[in-house]
Structure formats: C-alpha cells, structure tokens
Design goal:
The structure holds 2 protein chains of 2 kinds. By secondary structure, chain A is of the alpha/beta class. Among the domains of chain A are: 3-146 and 184-284, Rossmann fold; 378-435, no CATH class. Helix content of chain A is 50%, strand content 11%. Chain A contains 22 helices and 10 strands. The longest helix of chain A has 21 residues, at 16-36. Chain B is elongated, with a radius of gyration of 22 Å. Chain B has one domain: NagB/RpiA/CoA transferase-like (Rossmann fold). Chain B is of the alpha/beta class. The N and C termini of chain B lie far apart (53 Å). Chain B has helices spanning 3-15, 45-55, 66-72, 126-130, 148-152, 155-159, and strands at residues 59-60, 77-80, 92-93, 104-108, 111-113, 118-122, 134-139, 144-145, 166-170, 175-179, 182-185, 192-197. The chains are: A alpha/beta, B alpha/beta. At the A-B interface, helix 2, helix 3, helix 4, strand 1 and helix 8 of A face helix 1, helix 4, helix 5, strand 9 and strand 10 of B.
C-alpha cells in the first residue's frame, strides 16, 4: 500500500481510532506543557540540550570508543552491529540453547526484527510492557513510541486478553492484575532479559533505562543474562548530560517530572552475564548528511503527540516502526524507506516546538522532500520558466478560465486538485484591461 | 563488524559533512552542562518530598501510622532487606528468597530527592522493593536532597569510587496508562509506596 492508501484506510474507519489518538496525544502533550512550567528555564534547557546532543553526534566515534572501553572494563561484552542482521545473529548466538526471553521496551529491537530472529532459533521472546504485550498477542506492531496500544479500546484489550485466559470484564485494574500475574511468571522463568537503552553514559559505561511499569528492572535484573540493545546515537558524554536529558525526556514524552523507574546499570551482576549491542543499521547514512541533527533524537514521542497528521492517521499508517514527524524524517534516510513520508506533514512546525532537544523537524522534512523531488523538480522548473515570460504567463491563464472539471486534470496534479476549486472569473483580466489603457480607479 | 571498522566508517562520514539543512544550526555547547533548576520554594525538603510523593500516589508516614496503613492494604507477610523499620505485630516475616510471595517489602533508600518524590534503591534492595505489592522505604533525613541532578552529579558521595552494577531511582508506585489511556497502578512493581523519614 502507498502512503496515501494507508492514510485513507486510517481515515475511513468508524472514527474510533481518531478518538483514541486525540485522547492519548492530548493527555501527553498537555502534561508536557504543564511539567515544562515546573522548570526554571525550559527553553534555555532545550537549547542547551540541542547543542550538547549535536556536539555528541559530531564526536560519535570517540564517545562510542570510550563507552565500549568502560563497558568492557566492567566485565560486560560489547558488540558493534553494522546492520540488523549482524545484531540479530549476535543476539541469537547469546540466546542459543535458551527457551524464554523477556523484553522491555525497545524500538531498536522492533526495527531489527529481533523477535522473529529469536523465534527462528527456538527462543520465545515475550514483551513485558503492557501495551507492547497486547500488541504482540494481537500480532500488530506498536502504534506509538510511548503508547504502543493507544489505538485500542477497552473492548479490544478484553478480546486479546481473553485468548490468554483472562475471564474478567473491561475494568483496567482487573486486566492489570491479570497481566501482572501472567508476566510475573515469565520474568521468574526467563533465561534471558533484553532491554533497550534510553541513554548510555560514556563516562562510566553505564546504561540508563526508564520505565513507568517496573518491567525494565525485572527484565534486566532477574534472568541470569542481560542483553541491552542501543541505537549508536544514544550515547552521552557525562552524568550531567544524562541528568539534563532525563529531565526533558520524562516531561516531553510521558508528561511526568521523572519516569517511575530509572535504572542505571554498570556491568553485569555478580555471577551473571551482560551484553551491550550497539546498532548502526543505516544511522551512519544520516551522519555527515544535511539531516545529521535527526540523530539528536532521544525518542520521547513528543513530536507525535502534537503532529496534526499523526493525530489523524495514527502510527501504523506510516508503515514503519518509527512514525510521526521523526519517523517521516529518518525512515527515508535509514534504509531508503518510503520517501513519500516527508509529505505526511503540513510543515506547521509544531513538532519542532514540542521537541525537548529543539530539533527543527519541519526543516528536515523539507530537506526530505528536496532529497526526493526527482521528476517534480522538472515540473517546478517548467512552471518557473513559463511564468518568467509575459506571453507564456498570459497563455497559461487560458485553460484556467475554462475551469476544467477534476477528471480532466492530468494525474500529477489530480491529487492536488482534489478538494480545491478554481475561482470564478468575472469580466476581463487585469492584463487585458491594462492593455486597453483603462484607468482603474 | 569489528569495532575498528565500525568506528572508521563513522569517522569517514564525519570527515566531509554536508552543510546542514537547518536555517539556524545549534550554538556551540556550553562550557558546562546547565543544572536543571526548579523555581524557589519556601517549604522544607521533607514537605516538598511528601507533597510530590502524594501527587504520584505514594505517601509519607510516621512509625505510629504504619500499622494501620499496612492493615488497610491487607499486608500479612513481608520481606526485609533492612531492620530499621520495625515490622508491625501480626505481620509474618518471610526470607528474602520468597519476596515474590510477600505482600510487602521493607527496604532503606540510599538517598532521596524532594522535587520528584524519588528514592534511590541500591541493588541489594531491588527485589524487595519491586516484587511485593507494597513498598515500605526508610529514608535517612541527611540523604534527602532537592533534585535528581543533586544526586546524579555527586555519585561518589553515595557509592564511593566504584559504581555498583545496578541502582535505580523509584518515584512512586508502578504505573501505566496503556489501557485506553486510563492510569493503572501495580503493573510490574508495587501498588503502594510508603516512605518513612528517620
């Protein structure tokens, strides 16, 4: 399906998707506005964070080397994965002979298709975030960075959980208690725990993971083997930077002054094993490109919450793990994904305003459009040439005067013409009246 | 890919960067990372901590109030990683290996910060603070600071020269808004958090 087709599909339902999207995104974005006000200088902090993230990306090789050295010094293993296949092969190797893995929120593990790769070697990987779990049970990918099941109604939850043996009604507390009991067994039985990484602190080789549910600590801290997977850009130099970004990430993303559980892991527990997998998978395409600032992203989801397009069509319509404004920017760059995604935008700039590290996403979207302009460029050039000549300008008015019906508008413009009407013309054109020497009073 | 090749690829990309697409590129980074400051507040740190913890569905209690609170929560068994808070009468103590079965976990906090209602839980207290549905945590008064930054920027005073393999910030009970946007508690951690200062 093309982007347009997926958008139409998202808009053609019974409106429940839009109700759910509005409810969740409104709640999150209004809490960001409120928690922003708790800080003494929020915009100053955003700009400082922007500069610090950019500086870190500009010296990414150095920081990753320092991070790897420190992590290895703690007794953990470090693996540099150039692409998804290298990452999943390595992790499948660590999981060899094991039966059950528990997973805590990680967009990058979705991106690399880890669960399928583990299933192929006989390892069951169970998602433990409430929303990720229900999506996994329902065979759907996540719909939002922070709220993977935000499009589901309570009835949807009951439907999915009933298949797992849930016998209660649509009371969220009852469903939560069922999830707690069911997943608690998995934590205690699992051979392997796989987590994402919010930030990796190069100074000490520490991995920072934030959850609100508590599954991060249980995933990393209960099974004897812990694998932490990170996008290579998620490294910071110091604890002071981690503190700043934690304050911004919690507010912009979940709309709270701090995530309920912030875990700081520095090496394996006694008698246990830890692996850090650092993933490139196309991020180096963005390094050195005009859109390098997209690597500053700390995956908070704030841009999704304010985007007028995301709020209408939801995450699945983007056709990729990463959705919303950040997805529309990075997906075409990471793996030459759908270049049309940069058109899933009204260029309103709300994403930039909401971003806790002040990434000018709207400008990067424009860059994305320029990157893929292709034949469109020729059309713009032709138009510019035509309207640079008075005669050609006059001639081009003629078809418009006839107000052709939509059907006759040629295909490249038909989409644009939908929902737009040419104005009626009354009397003669200004040009012809001017040529007749009429004085216009 | 081996580390050398991986990093060399990144260096090559950075060696000849394209001009940025953005109209206003970022300013150079500040000489030092700015502190996350909060507006001035006349209340004491303990009062602010109590207010913040209550806002996230936890509470601060005195030793005298504890038995009644635990009775309300139907706590009959507990595990303890620290003896500082006496176990109220009638509550059976279980060995730590049975943390999963206990109703409550009694631990101490290594430190706490007021503006977010956060306690710092060292690894040896992890399972007791997380598995049971009630977490009772003792906070040393002299370890209560204002902000998370006050803790994160001064870790040596908490942990000495070497960081432990794990420690966590815990702010209130476990929660989620995943089910149709409704907030629920006690997902993979405690439903209730009771803090006592000593």
């Amino acid at each position: 399906m093309t982007l347009r087709e997926r958008e139409r599909a998202a808009l053609s339902g019974d409106g429940q998707l839009q109700v759910a999207l509005r409810r969740s995104t409104d709640a999150m974005s209004s809490r960001w506005a409120a928690t922003r006000a708790e800080l003494a200088d929020p915009d100053g902090l955003r700009e400082a964070a922007r500069s610090l993230r950019s500086a870190a990306i500009a010296r990414l090789p150095e920081l990753l080397a320092q991070l790897a050295d420190r992590v290895q010094a703690t007794g953990a293993h470090v693996f540099f994965a150039a692409d998804a296949e290298e990452a999943t092969s390595y992790i499948a190797g660590v999981a060899d002979g094991k039966k059950l893995a528990v997973k805590s929120k990680s967009m990058v593990t979705e991106e690399i298709g880890l669960n399928a790769a583990l299933a192929a070697v006989g390892v069951e990987a169970v998602e433990t975030d409430l929303g990720e779990w229900v999506q996994q049970l329902d065979g759907e990918p996540p719909a939002h960075i922070l709220g993977p099941a935000m499009h589901k109604t309570r009835a949807d939850w009951v439907r999915v959980l009933a298949r797992e043996g849930y016998e209660g009604g649509d009371d969220p507390d009852a469903m939560t208690a069922f999830a707690r009991r069911t997943l608690r067994r998995k934590f205690l039985e699992a051979d392997l725990g796989i987590t994402g990484v919010n930030l990796a602190i190069a100074e000490t080789g520490t991995v920072m993971m934030v959850t609100n549910e508590g599954n991060g600590r249980l995933t990393a801290g209960t099974p004897p083997v812990h694998v932490a997977v990170m996008g290579m850009e998620r490294v910071v130099a110091s604890w002071a930077e981690a503190d700043l970004l934690l304050a911004l990430l919690s507010r912009a993303g979940a709309g709270v002054s701090i995530g309920t559980y912030v875990n700081f892991i520095t090496g394996p527990r006694t008698g246990c094993e830890m692996h850090l997998v650092i993933v490139d998978n196309g991020r180096s395409n963005i390094l050195g490109s005009p859109s390098q600032e997209a690597l500053n992203c700390i995956r908070c989801g704030a841009c999704l919450n304010v985007c007028p397009v995301y709020r209408q069509i939801g995450g699945h319509a983007y056709g990729d793990v990463y959705s919303g404004p950040i997805g529309a920017v990075i997906v075409p760059l990471l793996r030459e994904g759908d270049p049309e995604l940069s058109h899933a935008s009204s260029l309103c700039g709300a994403c930039w305003k909401a971003c806790p590290v002040a990434i000018p996403l709207h400008e990067l979207l424009l860059q994305g459009r320029a990157d893929h302009a292709g034949s469109e460029r020729a059309i713009w050039r032709a138009w510019a040439a035509a309207w640079s000549s008075p005669r050609a300008f006059a001639l081009s008015g003629a078809p418009a005067r006839m107000r052709p019906p939509q059907m006759l508008v040629p295909p490249p413009f038909r989409e644009w013409a939908r929902g737009r009407e040419l104005p009626h013309r009354e009397g003669a054109t200004f040009r012809s009246r001017w040529a007749r020497g009429e004085v216009l009073e | 890919m081996n580390r050398g090749d991986f990093l060399a690829r990144l260096s090559a990309r950075l060696a000849d960067p394209a001009p940025p697409a953005v109209v206003h590129p970022p300013a150079p980074p500040p000489a030092s990372v700015p502190r996350v400051d909060y507006p001035p507040d006349p209340r004491s740190l303990e009062e602010r901590f109590a207010a913040e913890l209550e806002a996230i569905r936890g509470r601060v209690a005195t030793l005298g109030e504890l038995p009644a609170l635990l009775a309300e929560l139907d706590v009959r068994t507990a595990v303890m990683t620290d003896e500082r808070i006496p176990l109220p009468d009638g509550i059976e103590r279980l060995p730590l290996e049975r943390a999963e079965e206990a109703d409550a976990g009694f631990t101490t906090a290594r430190a706490a910060c007021a503006v977010t209602g956060t306690v710092v839980i060292a690894d040896e207290h992890r399972l007791a603070s997380l598995l049971p549905r009630v977490h009772v945590v003792a906070i040393p008064r002299d370890r209560l600071v204002e902000t998370p930054g006050d803790i994160l920027r001064d870790l040596p005073s908490l942990f000495g020269d070497r960081l432990p393999s794990g420690f966590a910030f815990a702010s209130g009970p476990s929660r989620s808004a995943d089910i149709a946007g409704e907030v629920v508690y006690g997902v993979h951690g405690p439903l209730a958090v009771i803090a006592l200062f000593f």
